Amino acid sequence: MNPYNCQLRVLVVSASPLRRAALLNKLRDRFGALFTAEGEGPALLEDARRLVREERCHAAVVVHDLADPFDPTANLDNLIEWLAPAGIVICAVRPNDRLAFQAGRRSLEYVHFADPASDLCAAVEARGRHGCKCDVAASWPETRFAASTARRLKLPAEQVSDENLYDLLGRLFPQAEAVDLHPLASLNTSKLVASAVRQSVVLLASERRPMVDTGRIPKVIKIGPRDEIARERDNYARYVEGWLQQNRQARLEDFVSLWHLGAITYAFLGVSPNDMAPFRAYYLRASAQDVLIALRQLFLETCHNWYSREREQVSGTRVFELYDEKLHLEQRMEQRLDMQSPVLSFPGLAEALPNPALWAYDVGRRAPGDSPTTAITHGDLHADNFFIDRNRQAWLIDFGQTGYSHALRDFVELEADLKLRLTDFGTDGLAGLAALEEALLAANRVDSLLLPVPAIAGQPILMKAFQVIAGLRHLACQATGITGQREYLEALLYETLFMATLRRLHPDVRQRALLSAALIARALRANGHPAPAPGLHLDVAGLAALSPTETFHTIEQHRKYLQSCLDSVSIQGRVYAEPPAEAGSLQRQIHAALIHTEQLRQGLA
């Protein structure tokens, strides 16, 4: 049960010491936690604002004197903004019907200074507990949830107390008798970053109401610093409502702003809780083709208006500038990455690679202004910020970063998340990642059909990552109209470098991020000339030097590789509504090589 259910903290605001003392006498018998603001004019409101935040006041009794032309409380709208989230009780020195009407319109309580103490206390109770069911029981996801939340939000512990969290929960679920909170599905591996969520806590929530079955609507609650949650609410109203198609975003159901904390709840209408899974959990169990079906629906249907209606080419702007504006990339690199060494070395890789942070700083930051494409983007599209239902429909949450940005931002963030956080490269992680990047960098356009390299074709996990990322790039081209490989690689480099600067990152994952960024920087330094594509044809002459067993094994391996190439091109081709002409040509080449290899295999058998 909630142990913090009867402790309203009340602030008294009056420029007159005599009236302030009179109000304190009326309130003292009912409320033990009383505070007073002092000062004159604007200084009085400044002190009141400070006390509301520092003492976490639930209600504020404000003496209102219309006879005073300098009364700083005369503007009710400003008063509400300054003293939020405290509920406001207007205490009029002289009866005034107009003031009472204006207070009622703004959901404020109105009393007369001469009213009995019981009326004043009742008004304070009504405003202080407005929208809050104070006896809600909470099942937190961990025993020291307040302390861990404070660390996560980078706030002082006194601003994220148990009492504050109960207050937040009671206001979000005013009709509930109990609320159960659970973390999002985890990957259960210390090798991967726990979450890519930026300075917030995201939980699955289910409420229980008396005599009402509420278990059919999945909800997500996001807790964060007050100002960030307020920005997310504004972004939802500005960029989400009326923009996303098919009603496939989670609906913003409620919003609460307290003294230092805020919280927002999203509901998934029309689906059962058992039908929903975070994308990262869905990705691990679904096939590459099913994953791409879900992503196609997300990018080309649900978010179509974001990437098409508001698309614009911005002349004289660098891609680096667009990412630095949103991610503070230059500052983060200077503080957290090696900005001295011209090259980086990685265990198990013979070749030293260019330092990607230096390339971004020296070349990307100073490149001549180009004309990158901007659009509305989600802005934080990692694998924990959308869900997939059993119909392979995607549901978006978390719009704190939504707004105008580089059009490729959502696509490159999701690609980096897939490679660095969701793919298990095994014990030889860097070699596997290098092979994956080799295949992905063998393109001269974003919409090029890609072939896997032999090193990943026989590994199902790497092959799946390759197929999904290749398809994701095709979706990026279709959604944004961007075909230039250099613009895509620059965007991918900056997002990967940003991931490398995250503090809550396992050292192995940080090393992967740096390797991925270094390989991308090498490709950019080569002025966009792609790495050579993997060969489709078997070196028949070289088979003469092998034993019969080795020959048979080599042919069999090549046959399996060609089949992987054929499967990959088929999946990429299906991502397009109308596959490009090169898809058919490439399929025919692979098919012919496959027939020839099969003939060799059968002849040898």
Description:
The structure is a single chain. The strands form 5 sheets. A 6-stranded mixed β-sheet has the order 6-7-8-9-11-10, with helices on both faces. A 5-stranded parallel β-sheet has the order 2-1-3-4-5, sandwiched between helices. The model is unreliable at 186-197 (pLDDT under 50). Among the domains are: 9-128, Rossmann fold (3-Layer(aba) Sandwich), CATH 3.40.50; 137-277, no CATH class; 541-604, no CATH class. The protein is elongated. Helix 18 packs parallel to helix 21 (548-575). With 605 residues, the protein is α/β, with parallel strands linked by helices. The chain has 22 helices and 19 strands.
Set out the fold topology.
Blueprint: E1 9-13, H1 17-28, E2 33-37, H2 42-55, E3 59-64, H3 76-83, E4 87-92, H4 97-105, E5 109-112, H5 117-128, E6 137-139, H6 145-153, H7 162-172, E7 178-183, E8 201-208, E9 219-225, H8 226-240, E10 251-257, E11 261-267, E12 277-278, H9 279-285, H10 288-302, H11 304-308, E13 312-313, H12 319-327, H13 329-336, E14 343-344, E15 353-354, H14 356-364, E16 373-377, E17 386-388, E18 394-396, E19 403-406, H15 409-422, H16 429-440, H17 454-457, H18 460-480, H19 485-500, H20 507-525, H21 548-575, H22 581-604
Parallel strand pairs: 1-2, 1-3, 3-4, 4-5, 6-7
Antiparallel strand pairs: 7-8, 8-9, 9-11, 10-11, 12-17, 13-16, 14-15, 16-19, 17-18
Helix pairs in contact: 10-18, 12-19, 14-19, 14-20, 15-18, 15-19, 16-18, 16-20, 18-21, 19-20, 21-22
Shape: elongated
Unreliable stretches, pLDDT < 50, 5 or more residues?
186-197
Please state the oligomeric state of the protein chains shown.
single chain
Largest sheet: 6 strands, mixed
Helix content: 40-55%
Total E-strand runs: 19
Radius of gyration: 30 Å
- Bin the strand percentage: 5-15%
Structural class: alpha/beta
Cα-to-Cα separation, first versus last residue: 74 Å
Strand order of the largest sheet: 6-7-8-9-11-10
Instruction: Report mean pLDDT, rounded to a whole number.
Output: 85
Query: What's the tally of helices?
Result: 22
